[in-house]
Amino acid sequence: MSDTETLGELRATVAALGARLRAVEDQVAISQLVARYGPAVDSGSAEAAAALWAEDGAFEVPPYAIWTGHDEIAGMVNGAGHQGLITNGCGHVLTAPLVKVDGDEARAWNYALNIRWDREADRFWVARVSANSWLLHRGADGWRVAHRTNRSLDGSPEPRALFQASTQPFEAGAGSA
Q1: Distance CA 134, CA 159 (A)
Q2: What separation in angstroms does the CA of 127 have from each of 113, 151, 158, 171?
Q3: Strands 53-61, 65-68: pairing kind
C-alpha cells in the first residue's frame, strides 16, 4: 500500500469517527435536553424550562393548551395551575427518549408521568401518563425544541399515533404528530 493510499484510508477513518462522535453527541445532547424538563418545571424554574424551546417553539398539551414561545411557556410554569401542582407535591418524570437525528433536525419520543403526592393517604399516585413527540432543531445555541406534543394515554388513537411515527424512518421537516 502506498503512502497516498494509507493517508487516504486514514482520512476516511477519521471522517467516519468524526461522524460517529457527532451522532453520539447529538443523542446525548437531546437526551439531556429532555431530561432537564422535569427538574425545571418541578422546581418552578420558568426561564430554564422555556429556554429548552426555540424562541418560537410550541408545547402542545391537549386538551389543556398550546403554549408558543418562551413567554407563554414560562407563563405556564408560573401559572396558578402549575404552581398548585408543584406546591402540593408533583413530579414530572420523563423516560429516556428514542431519538432519531437527521442533520440539524431530530425527532424524539418518550413517556411522561405526572406523579402527585396525596398528603391525606401519605402516598404518591400516577395522575397522568402521556405519549410525547418532540421535534428539535440544532441552531447556534445547540439543540432546542421546535414542537413538543404531549397526549394522555387514555385509550384514544391520537397518543398511539405519536408513537407509530417512531417506528418509521426519520423524515426531516415531517412535523410532530
Answers
A1: 13
A2: 8, 13, 19, 33
A3: antiparallel
DSSP string, 4-38: HHHHHHHHHHHHHHHHHHHHHHHHHHHHHHHHHHH
- Strand 53-61 with 142-152, pairing: parallel
Q: What does 150-176 look like in DSSP terms, one character per residue? A: EEE-SS-HHHHHHHHGGGSPP-TT---
pLDDT digits (tens, 9 = 90+) for 93-146: 999 999 999 999 999 999 999 999 999 999 999 999 999 999 999 999 999 999
Q: What is the dihedral of CA 23, 26, 28, 29, to 10 degrees?
A: 170
Report phi then psi at 33, rounded to 5.
Answer: -60, -50
Taking domain 3-167, whether its CATH number is 3.10.450.50 is answered by yes
- Give pLDDT tens digits for 62-93: 988 999 999 999 999 999 999 999 999 999 99
**Is-contact 149 176, C-beta < 8 A?**
yes
* Helical axes 80-88 vs 3-42, angle rounded to 10°: 90
169/27 Cα distance (integer angstroms):
16
**Interatomic CA distance for residues 113 and 29, integer angstroms:** 22
